UniProtKB/TrEMBL annotation, chain A:
Keywords: Oxidoreductase, Thiamine pyrophosphate. InterPro entries: THDP-binding, Transketo_C/PFOR_II, Transketolase-like_Pyr-bd, Transketolase_C. It comes from Halogeometricum salsisoli. It holds the Pfam family Transket_pyr. Residues 10-185 form the Transketolase-like pyrimidine-binding domain. The keyword Transferase does not apply. CDD domains: TPP_PYR_E1-PDHc-beta_like. Its cofactor is thiamine diphosphate. This is Alpha-ketoacid dehydrogenase subunit beta. Transmembrane segments: none annotated. SMART domains: Transket_pyr. The lineage of its organism: Archaea, Methanobacteriati, Methanobacteriota, Stenosarchaea group, Halobacteria.
From TrEMBL, chain B:
Keywords: Oxidoreductase, Pyruvate. PANTHER family: 2-OXOISOVALERATE DEHYDROGENASE SUBUNIT ALPHA, MITOCHONDRIAL. NCBIfam families: PDH_E1_alph_x. Gene3D superfamilies: 3.40.50.970. InterPro entries: Alpha-ketoacid_DH_E1_comp (IPR050771), DH_E1 (IPR001017), PdhA/BkdA (IPR017596), THDP-binding (IPR029061). It comes from Halogeometricum salsisoli. Residues 38-330 form the Dehydrogenase E1 component domain. This is Pyruvate dehydrogenase (Acetyl-transferring) E1 component subunit alpha. It holds the Pfam family E1_dh.
């Protein structure tokens, strides 16, 4: 596989498309399937132009049935294909839940390795785009809770392409959640050729010494902004972007905490049972003696995601993130 | 013989495209017919205004209904007061007939929780966004009516795309097995976003799927409000008072077309020909019913003008009212999750309130 030096300046959603395009070109076992992914190029244009280039057998508009998409993709995957199934919004993934958790996640275990499921399920997730009801939830914890699934959430165009390529090449099922709030929010350099960003490795986005803040997806931006603001007040914030929420990069999480002794977690998913709890427990298990303050969880609330007139109050804002980090620092 | 007893491939029609009757005109009074026309006209005008509100940034994503007024108003018209409607997200027309104030519909699409509250006296469920999920609710609701010995039919609306979901099949299967008083009303508008009807099913019609569940399926011209009314009315009556040996549920496939985009976030020119749209516009249900009503002396220029004026006022008033609604209180987020707030939700609500005190809107609202 050649490593091209050429780069392009892409948005996150363009990086999804580029990742798909790259792997479809590399590997003719890769097929893209889902609702409106064909001629329409996906409702977010994540598959734009792929249908024209690869045709109806590789970019497949399916009937409107998520269980159907996930279930048939599992069947294809077991027969040597590499399906990438799109769920139009993560909020509409629930009909596929049974197929994903009861089968994709455990086919390898159940068949003692005889059958495997190299499947990627992509879905835009998260809030903040003034979308209608059921279009804004963050339910990554559902999937992270399921043994046998890897759950990836990129936050930059570079990582998006590299992680998607890794996900497609992964021998096991990967849930690939795309933060749609930042689909087009900014651009980043993305190499033209193929490259992998390894699944399961967090990235330290910003080094700091006073407090570690763990986040991922669209919340990386308000977290970075809060960190910059706090810097002006003399607070040095380290920001760790998990990139993969399962398996979690506990080594990086702990390493950062051992340096700072204080932590905050930022996610838009509801607080209770969210990944913040897993991170907090990890710190407690592995670095208790470094701990100098309770871990702050800055999260969505334990309520159904509100209609959009209220969503800004629901989502962690820069001010809220800042305040939470401050609590951890000033304890 | 009931209009429901026909081959599912034999489409029921009452009015030709030019308004000429070709079938039995249902037994509706002059007033009712004119009201039907007015409501279709109202739905169309509301729709046009709603789309432009979205374009001007005064409303979020909105799913237009234009082209589907005949099916929506015609079917809702066939329900009795005690009957129920379980809509999808596009049934603003059917909803207005049921008595849902336009202001509520606007508020919902403007992102206000309040828009989801159906007034006590309106027998209708809130919008269902996850496709086909409401089909099962409608079956369960009808089943409850039957178990409780109440005479009420439950009509459920959904699109052609929805017929591919498992929930659709499970809903119809339960209805067949438990013989529930349901009218399953499929608004086959030919497209599920960009996916054409032929990509949803290899069946020749959607109506014929009912056969597999053991009850009647009928295809009607969904651009013909009188045909829609006739079929739905027969289905509602049969649901509540089946003859010996008749099954209560019915599947109606109303063949129609969505003139506009799937939602305001969609660009239909990417996936369908404008020629196709033009062809279907010739079948427009509004001029069709208007021609019939004029021809039969029920409408004239003067009456049509009066309808136009009153409809414009009514919609303008609703928009004005919706837009003068204050932004909902942030605390609304924490209410109605459970009958009683849990200690954790209460704690979160209090923490939020304190933070809101300190920061005000500035600490939360993005541009
Ligand atoms: C379970 C589910 N999957 C996907 C979606 C996204 N989506 C919204 S509308 C739509 C197409 C629906 O088509 P159809 O049922 O024919 O109804 P129409 O919109 O044409 O009225 C899709 C795929 C959804 N809302 N729910």
């Amino acid at each position: 596989m050649s490593q091209s030096q050429q780069t392009q300046n892409l948005t996150l959603v363009q990086a999804v498309r580029d990742g798909l395009h790259t792997e479809m070109t590399n590997d003719d076992r890769v097929v893209v399937m889902g609702e409106d992914v064909g001629k329409n190029g996906g409702v977010f244009r994540a598959t734009e132009g792929l249908w024209d280039e690869f045709g109806d057998d590789r970019v497949i508009d399916t009937p409107l049935a998520e269980s159907g998409i996930a279930g048939t993709a599992i069947g294809m995957a077991t027969m040597g294909m590499r399906p990438v199934a799109e769920m139009q919004f993560s909020g509409f993934m629930y009909p596929a839940f049974d197929q994903i958790v009861s089968h994709a996640a455990r086919l390898r275990t159940r068949s003692r390795g005889r059958f495997t499921c190299p499947l990627v399920v992509r879905a835009p997730y998260g809030g903040g785009i003034r979308a209608p009801e059921h279009h804004s939830e963050s339910k990554e914890a559902f999937y992270a809770h399921e043994a046998g699934l890897k759950v990836v959430i990129p936050s930059t165009p570079y990582d998006t392409k590299g992680l998607l390529i890794s996900a497609i090449r992964d021998p096991d099922p990967v849930i690939f959640l795309e933060p749609k709030l930042i689909y087009r929010a900014f651009r980043g350099d993305v190499p033209e050729g193929d490259y992998e960003v390894p699944i399961g490795e967090a990235a330290v986005r910003r080094e700091g010494t006073d407090v570690s803040v763990y986040t991922y997806g669209a919340m990386t931006r308000p977290t970075m902004e809060a960190a910059e603001n706090l810097e002006e007040d003399g607070v040095s914030v380290e920001v760790v972007d998990l990139r993969t929420v399962s398996p979690m990069d506990k080594e990086t999480i702990v390493e950062s905490f051992e340096k700072t002794g204080r932590a905050a977690v930022v996610h838009e998913a509801p607080k209770t049972g969210g990944l913040g709890a897993e991170i907090t427990a990890t710190l407690q298990e592995k670095a208790l003696l470094h701990q100098e303050a309770p871990v702050e969880r800055i999260a969505g609330y334990d309520v159904p995601y509100p209609l959009y007139a209220l969503e800004d109050y629901y989502l962690p804002s820069v001010a809220r993130v800042e305040e939470g980090i401050r609590n951890a620092v000033e304890f | 013989m009931s209009v429901l007893q026909r081959d599912p491939q034999d489409m029921l029609r009452v009015l030709e495209e030019d308004g000429t009757p070709v079938g039995e005109v249902p037994d509706l009074s002059d007033d009712e017919l004119v009201t039907m026309y007015r409501e279709m006209y109202l739905a169309r005008h509301f729709d046009t205004r709603a789309v432009s509100l979205q374009r001007q940034g005064r409303m979020g994503t909105y799913p237009p209904l234009s082209g589907q007024e005949g099916a929506q108003i015609g079917s809702a018209f066939a329900l009795d007061e005690e009957d129920w409607l379980f809509p999808s997200y596009r049934e603003h027309g059917a909803a207005l007939h049921r008595g849902l104030p336009l202001k509520r519909t606007l508020l919902y699409w403007m992102g206000h929780e309040k828009g989801n509250r159906i007034p006590e006296d309106v027998n209708m469920f809130p919008v269902a966004v996850p496709i086909a999920t409401q089909v099962l609710h409608a079956t369960g609701a009808a089943w409850a009516k039957k178990l409780q010995d109440e005479d009420a039919a439950v009509m459920c609306c959904f699109g052609d795309g929805a017929t591919s979901e498992g929930d659709f099949h499970e809903g119809l299967n339960f209805a067949g097995v438990f013989d529930t008083p349901n009218v399953f009303f499929c608004n086959n508008n030919q497209w599920a976003i960009s996916v054409p009807r032929e990509r949803q099913t290899a069946s020749a019609t959607i109506a014929q799927k009912a056969t597999a569940y053991g009850f009647e399926g009928v295809q009607v011209d969904g651009m013909d409000p009188l045909a829609v009314y006739a079929a739905t009315r027969a289905a509602v009556e049969k649901a509540k008072n089946p003859d010996e040996g008749e099954r209560r549920p019915t599947l109606i496939e109303a063949v129609q077309y969505r003139f506009g985009a799937h939602t305001t976030a969609d660009d239909p020119t990417v996936y369908r020909d404008t020629d196709e749209v033009e062809e279907w516009k010739k079948k427009d249900p509004i001029p069709r019913l208007e021609a019939f009503l004029r021809e039969t002396g029920r409408l004239d220029d003067e009456k049509v003008e009066a309808i136009e004026t009153s409809v414009k006022d009514e919609v303008a008033e609703a928009i004005e009212a919706a837009e003068s609604e204050p932004r909902p209180e942030p605390s609304e987020m924490f209410s109605n999750v459970f009958a009683e707030q849990t200690p954790e939700i209460r704690a979160q609500a209090e923490a939020f309130a304190e933070m809101y005190e300190r920061h005000g809107d500035e600490g939360f609202l993005r541009e």
